[in-house]
Amino acid sequence: AEHSWADAPVMGHLWEYIIGTDMVEGYTSDGRCLGTPEYNPPPMPIRLQWDLPPPALAAIDRSYQIALDLCNDVDLRIYMHTAYGKGFMKECKVSPDAYIQMALQLAYFRDAGRFSLTYEASMTRLYREGRTETVRPCTIEST
């Protein structure tokens, strides 16, 4: 699914614009925003009516059951690690992000006995027509 609208830099620019506008417009002596509010309500939502054939409904039911089974098959344990933080990682000349990526690779290898393809988003929006790019951090150097 397209998700570039929700990349961190987009949200950052949005908040920068909102806060900047607030600062330029200023406030009244009692702390209210200056300016005239503009509000144009969107059209009222309408319920969509679908006419799906029985095979499509059956496929939706099967997909729903598969998704439900996957959700119910999660075993998650969260441990708080307080022995050291990002300062230690930086002392080792490793970025905290790289450290965590390699820790995840090691944990997966110890659990599955093999390496797996990994995905990490990398922000390239500041370059010409840039956007999020994919980094594959599981490399010979990290093993």
TrEMBL record:
Pfam families (UniProt xref): Carn_acyltransf (PF00755)
Record-annotated Choline/carnitine acyltransferase domain positions: 1-142
Gene3D superfamilies assigned: Chloramphenicol acetyltransferase-like domain (3.30.559.10), Choline/Carnitine o-acyltransferase, domain 2 (3.30.559.70)
BP-aspect Gene Ontology terms: carnitine metabolic process; fatty acid metabolic process
Name the record gives this protein: Choline/carnitine acyltransferase domain-containing protein
Cellular component aspect of the GO annotation: mitochondrion
Keywords annotated in UniProt: Acyltransferase, Transferase
GO MF entry, a single one: carnitine O-palmitoyltransferase activity
Family under the similarity heading: Belongs to the carnitine/choline acetyltransferase family.
Signal sequence bounds: none
